[in-house]
Known about the structure:
Layout: H1 5-24, H2 30-41, E1 44-50, H3 56-64, E2 81-85, E3 90-95, E4 100-102, E5 104-108, E6 111-115, E7 124-131, E8 139-143, H4 152-161, E9 174-179, H5 184-193, E10 206-211, H6 223-235, E11 246-250, H7 252-260, H8 263-273, H9 277-283, H10 287-290, H11 300-325, H12 330-341, H13 343-354, H14 358-377, H15 382-398, H16 400-412, H17 420-429, H18 436-439, H19 448-466, H20 473-494
Parallel strand pairs: 1-8, 1-9, 2-7, 9-10, 10-11
Antiparallel strand pairs: 2-8, 3-4, 3-7, 5-6
Helix pairs in contact: 1-2, 1-14, 1-15, 2-14, 3-7, 7-11, 7-12, 8-11, 14-15, 16-20, 19-20
Amino acid sequence: MSANPVLAVVDRVRMVCSLAADIVIGTALAPQVDAVRARLDGALRIAIAGRVKAGKSTLLNALVGERLAPTNAGECTKVVTWYQYGTAYDVTAVGYDGRSTSIAFRRVDGALNFDIEGLRLEAIERLVVSWPSSALRDITLIDTPGLASLSAENSLRTTEFLALDDTHPSDADAVIYLMRHLHRRDAEFLGSFMDRSVAGASPVNAVAVLSRADEIGAGRLDAMASARRISERYETNDVVRTLCTAVAPVAGLIAETGLTLREDEAWALRRLAATPAPVLERMLRAADAFCDPGASELTVELRRQLLDRLGVFGVRFCVAEIRSHESATANDLSKALVAESGLDALRGLIADLFLPRAHILKARTALVSLRSIARDLESSDPARAYQLAAEIERCEASAPDFAELRLSHLVMSGIVAFNEGQRREFSVLTSPGTGVEERLGDDPAADQATLRASALAGVERWRTYGSAPMADIAMREACETMAHTYESLFVQLHEPRPAGI
């Protein structure tokens, strides 16, 4: 089996880290290099960002499958909060001075409540929640304060964390951006997040979510169908598809509730569904009518709790489910709510777009961090700073994986219109985590001569595609990257293999 190219690029970045560690040993920059090394071995960091009340914390809870992030009517997230895997339950505040302070926490209505009384928020860089959840084994989810917040300080925290001011590297490897609709500020944010420092602009690490999708059309039963049509239109928008790989409609509230629905809530919904149709129809027209004291045998408090947990759409959807199936347990309703919410589609995007490229995405952000360290070193040691910067450039130039990220965006976003056969070939050739034989689409038992011939044929084929008179700049770039990838595989086939392989 040939060497894994995904791991190869990480090994190259590790070598640059070793050089950087030797260069900055004994200086204040040494801890930064150690942090870059640790980042390569850690989970993929995915930031959840968006404007105030876009539903970031609710979506995070849905992705984890537990009500961890606090959600209420106010602006909840005021400090960047990391949710990472841990063997024990723990919450820590990390200050800008690097000091960590253990934070007391408790469950309030199922969600975590952090006790940060006595701590100066302006001194806290981030909160770190360690939680033994299987959903956090491969990814660390990062909840960020809302952009365009009434508090300029809260918005600034997100801007600094995601490095939108371009003064330091971002701590996020990928971003899920929530928007209610494509506002000008949303496009500006996504454009700012794009990393132009390595192998060109590559928004492959950005996915947009049409959030709170169940509220479209005042929560009609066809709200999610409408949201899916809107998302499809966004994905064909020339501006959107240059900023992110995909747009997914998600109703975070019903996803979160679907994963945490209790049997007593299902009982209340069954009682509600038994209400005479004319009365129930009036109740479901608006929240005020739903909570009218004389409208139902259910208490007003219980009905308000259902609205808080499900929203108008969620209540309507559950009632329709119960009536169409005559009876529904909490498990039945949970499955239906999650299926309707769009959460599975978003999880699919994470699994298909982010996780297979996790090593490459982390390697890229590591190089960005190392470049920042090299800039910081210039004032005290220009010669060593130049040495480090030159090694970073060599690493980037020698790793085709970074160019393949850009290629993936061009093809998946539709900017480059590959035909069906070309798309299949692209998919096989750029599949991360596979060997040379699989990427060339040949029989695993094929001999070296056959494999080399396939690689050379690929180079010639894609150079021919790129030289077509009607090929635009993007198509030529994509074809050249495909040809370079075949060349890289050809080189790997000439590398000596360990005995017995």
